[in-house]
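tool_call: predict_structure(chain=1)
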Amino acid sequence: MRVLLDENLPHDLAGALTGHVVLTVHQLGWAGVKNGELLQRAAGQFDAFITMDTNLQFQQRLQDRLFGVIVLRARSDRMTDLLPLVDPILATLAALQPGAVQHVGA
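tool_result:
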């Protein structure tokens, strides 16, 4: 699966999501791009978008997107807080459908 990590997530998370091709917004030179434009750029290039932006689903129409969205809920965006979510993220990726929004974490 082709996965895009939002700019609010650490680059190290990409390496933890084994079995997937994971790129970051920063790697693509898309840092600072507004959410609407970012989602348009991701269409057709990625199967999943992972973010910690809990407002994204209320600000953007996601159900018509060609990729699914995973919203992470963690104490912070530090790897120590995100590592416990890696297995649930991988399980969610396995079942993620285009246009779906799934929440991972407490």
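agent: The two ends are 25 Å apart (CA to CA). Proceeding to next step.
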